[in-house]
Design goal:
This protein is of the alpha/beta class. The chain has helices at residues 7-11, 15-27, 42-51, 61-68, 86-100, 110-116, 128-138; strands spanning 2-5, 31-36, 57-60, 73-74, 82-83, 104-107, 122-125. The strands form two sheets. The chain has a five-stranded parallel β-sheet. Strands 4-5 form a two-stranded antiparallel sheet. Magnesium ion (MG) binds next to helix 1.
Amino acid sequence: MKIGLDVHGVVDKYPDVFARLTKVLKGKGHEIIIITGRELCTELFDKLDTLGVAYNDVFSITSYHKRIGTHVTYKDGDPTQPLIAPPLWDRTKADFCKQEGVAVHFDDSLVYGKYFEEIDTQYILVNEGIAEVLRLILEGAVTL
Ligand SMILES: [Mg+2]
């Protein structure tokens, strides 16, 4: 099974949950794909290492659009603040998940969710409640 994970507001907000969850899932042969807006760069990979997340691949909205020739600008020239026309930006994660057959994607953005209604990927809106449920399962408080 392919599992997608956003970074900002998900992996970096609940590293205790997602570091453990990804290690368990990857260890059982599932494919973890980091799906982020941030451009592929050393800082991103260093951050993932620091957070302790296990993954197989990384998809970047920004890097993808630069590769296919979409016009990308940066707010105030800040490389962490890429700007792409919103409808195109907002549906890119869903388009990628559909194309790659991602089964479940964890994200914290309400904006992306509506594009997942059109595809088979289950969109999990991560919040404190979801993080706590996952934490309890990982700690063995909920036996499956
Ligand atoms: Mg996010």
